[in-house]
Design brief:
The chain is mainly α. It is built from 3 helices and 2 strands, in the order H-E-E-H-H. Strands 1-2 form a two-stranded antiparallel sheet.
């Protein structure tokens, strides 16, 4: 996650940056509610990035499949579906449990 990503998420959480005479201050960031919102947004962004890596890796197995002999196809399919399942598990970590 880049500095710009973090600043964007802080603004999305309700913070605002004000620059005066070359010095930047943040307002609206002192409350526990802001910190909770910001932390939740950062965690969600990281979960999605991790899930995307797992998903991309599993889709990449399709390329391997083209050159693998038929007898190994089940292993390739299993690896692909496992990657998709892992991506789903990562995304579910953000679900609110009752």
């Amino acid at each position: 996650m880049t500095r710009d990503d973090i600043i964007r998420l802080a603004r999305e959480a309700g913070g605002a940056d004000i620059t005066v005479n070359g010095f930047t201050s943040w307002v609206g960031t002192q409350s526990p509610e802001f910190l909770e919102r910001c932390a939740a947004l950062v965690a969600a962004a990281e979960r999605e990035a991790c899930a995307k890596v797992a998903e991309d890796r599993s889709v990449g197995w399709g390329e391997v499949e083209r050159v693998v002999h038929t007898k190994n196809r089940h292993a390739v399919d299993a690896a692909r579906y496992e990657g998709l399942a892992i991506a789903g598990e990562i995304r579910l970590r953000g679900e609110v449990k009752p």
